[in-house]
Design goal:
The protein is α+β, with helices and mostly antiparallel strands and about 200 residues long. It contains two helices and ten strands, in the order αβββαβββββββ. A hairpin with a 2-residue loop joins strand 9 (about 175-180) and strand 10. The protein starts with 5 loop residues before the first helix and ends in a 12-residue tail after the last strand. The structure holds FE2/S2 (inorganic) cluster (FES). FE2/S2 (inorganic) cluster (FES) binds near residues 130 and 135. FE2/S2 (inorganic) cluster binds next to loops.
Length: about 200
């Protein structure tokens, strides 16, 4: 049998290599496109917003991941940072900062009606995402009784759901909750868009 010219052999090998690489990239691209087409709900439960029936758990500290009991919240603040958790699977929805929550217990007699609608036994839950540029509202002023954003001095009144200082263009949205025994359970959706709008 006639031997193939070494030059032709080399070209054939090169063609096969290129073909294999192209198929590899095409497959990878198809997989990535397919991944984008998967509905977000089936992608990652830890990145979902709070769902009705979720329970609130500590987001920080040595009790991180444990349910927040209404009784453990000091009356009149400060707030605790929390995440929602799916009680069936134990998945904590901490994958998206927009699910970070502020939980505090206030005297129900002093709540504005529009806040009281979302509260239960004085427990009020707000989105922790500042409406100015999206920092996490993480400070509490004990004398003023306001929630503060560390980035540009935004201040929010938790009794009236109002901006009282700084540049935030709108209040923090409220999340409705119910106190059920020693747990806090999400009972609806946010009162408005979370974080920066537009
Ligand atoms: S990001 Fe909160 S005040 Fe600017």
């Amino acid at each position: 049998m006639e031997r193939e010219d070494p030059k032709v052999q080399k070209e054939r090998r090169l063609m096969l290599t290129l073909l294999g690489t192209s198929v590899g990239f095409a497959t990878l691209s198809a997989l990535l496109v397919a991944k984008d087409l998967v509905p977000k709900q089936s992608q990652s439960p830890d990145r979902l917003p709070p769902q009705v029936g979720d329970i609130l758990v500590h987001a920080t500290g040595h009790t991180q991941g444990e349910p927040i009991s209404p009784d453990a919240l000091p009356l009149g603040g400060p707030f605790l940072l929390a995440y929602p958790m799916d009680p069936k699977t134990g998945v904590v929805r901490s994958g998206d900062p927009k699910s970070t929550l502020l939980v505090l217990r206030l005297d129900p007699k002093h709540l504005a009606p529009e806040v009281a609608r979302y509260a239960d036994q004085g427990v009020v839950v707000y989105s922790a995402v500042c409406t100015h540029l999206g920092c996490i509202v993480s400070l509490w002023h004990p004398n003023l009784g306001v929630m503060q954003c560390p980035c540009h001095g935004g201040e929010y009144d938790p009794y009236r759901d109002q901006v009282v200082a700084g540049p935030p263009p709108r209040p923090l949205p409220l999340l409705p909750v119910k106190a059920e025994g020693s747990k806090l359970v999400v009972s609806g959706t946010f009162s408005g868009p979370v974080g920066v709008v537009g």
